[in-house]
Amino acid sequence: MNRSFGEVTATVVGEHVAEVELHRPPANYFDVALLEGIVESIRWADLQACRAVVLCSEGRHFCAGLDFGAVATPQPDALRLLYQQAVDLISLPLPVVVAVQGAAIGGGLGLAMAGDFRVGSPDSRFAANFARLGFHQGFGLSVTLPRAIGHQRALELLTTGRRVNGDEALRIGLCDRLAEDPRAEAHRLAGELAGSAPLAVRSIRATLRAGLAGQFAEAIEHERSEQVRLMGTEDFGEGIGASLDRRTPRFTGR
Hints:
By secondary structure, the chain is an alpha/beta fold.
């Protein structure tokens, strides 16, 4: 049983498990439509009596966030619509296991962190590279990243923008399992979740996530405001230009 929501497909692949797959290879850049497809796919899975979801992507990488090569400066209203989908995603009732092959970068890391669990491989790469682009983190990472790895590690990753490989990600709690085939391992974990008592899983999840949706929504509005402000700076233009040119940025603080 499967259903398509734009460039996202939802398929019931096992007993009470759905696979939600993005189809924008190789980098799976997101926009409002793609995030909306993810949200609608998970809602559909819930209606099919699924108990867990595997979120995965076609191609080399899980998700590289926004495509700044295509849209150099997202408009404030567009960011608001984008982040409303992120708030809807964090509020959904099913546990989500994210399979991260290749890279989860910037907003793509935010998407991965919006899930309950992450499965990577030794070759996976995680980066909150916003400061290297000259602006503020988004997609609720101000909340989800410290919850997973602690305040101090989150501060370091956000301010340096450095990349973390799969082994380090597992060690610091950025991902929960490591496997040569992240999607297959994500399905194993989702199967374990689906094999537990569904009412108990939802109750436990709700307890541990108490207040998360509200904190996420509040944080993401602040993030959006700061992103809009910093997108007007010279450093943002330099950061995006350097990224597109694959060179080291030369920031001036203006």
